[in-house]
Amino acid sequence: MSTITSVTSCATTSCAYNHDGCSAFGVTIAGTDKPTCVTFVTLDARGGLPKADGHVGACQRLECVHNADLMCTNASITIADAAQCQSYEVA
Question: 35-68 as b/e, with b when 16 or more CB fall inside 10 Å?
Fold first, then answer.
């Protein structure tokens, strides 16, 4: 893997790491049924980096075609309103 996958957009506005985009240093994609951002947290405070520059730190969805060694190999991902990874794809 030559690059780190960026989070290009996140529609989950109730997440404490969403400041007009993902401001978490790194997110983890997992979930039991659907591939979701498990870094999602609802708090009264906002956290993360001072600007929206989030990246995928780990991906636990082994069946996704973009997963290699628990890392996302896609150029970028998008996160839907329900914290679901829209870039998830099964071969």
Answer: bbbebbeeeeeeebeeebebbbbbbebeebebbe
Are the C-beta atoms of 27 and 54 separated by less than 8 Å? yes
Residue 50 half-sphere exposure, CB side, CA atoms within 13 Å? 0
Task: Quickly tell me which residue has 């839907």 as its tokens.
Answer: 80
Segment 47-72, tens digit of pLDDT: 999 999 999 999 999 999 999 999 99
Where residue 90 falls (left for φ over 0; alpha for ψ -120 to 50; beta otherwise) is: beta
What confidence score (pLDDT) does residue 3 get? 72
In eight-state DSSP terms, residue 16 is T
